[in-house]
Amino acid sequence: xxxxxxNCRMLTLTSYKADIEFRLQRTMEKRQxxxxxxxxxxxxxxxxxxxxxKYQQYILEQQENAINAMDKILEMEEKNIQTxxxxxxxxxxSIQKLLSNNIKNEFKYNA
Length: 111
Known about the structure:
The protein is mainly alpha-helical. It contains two helices and no strands.
């Protein structure tokens, strides 16, 4: 590849990597929000246990199960995004090495 093509590919990968990092950040924010909701449900569940309100306990358990399921989905998505991020980083490093080698070779031939 030429130096110009490598630079173009490097800029594209850098942009892609930034997009991946943004997606990862959004996924982590969603998981944190679910954590806050889970804490709220836990406190409501404690009140329902004290009041012996079986119906409210059932509803809160269902909400808790739904939050746990969403968290598992987000966790898998987070791992997938991290894998994409590692792949983009590896490719970016290889492009930078190729670019460095091409520049060295260009100066050898021109000197």
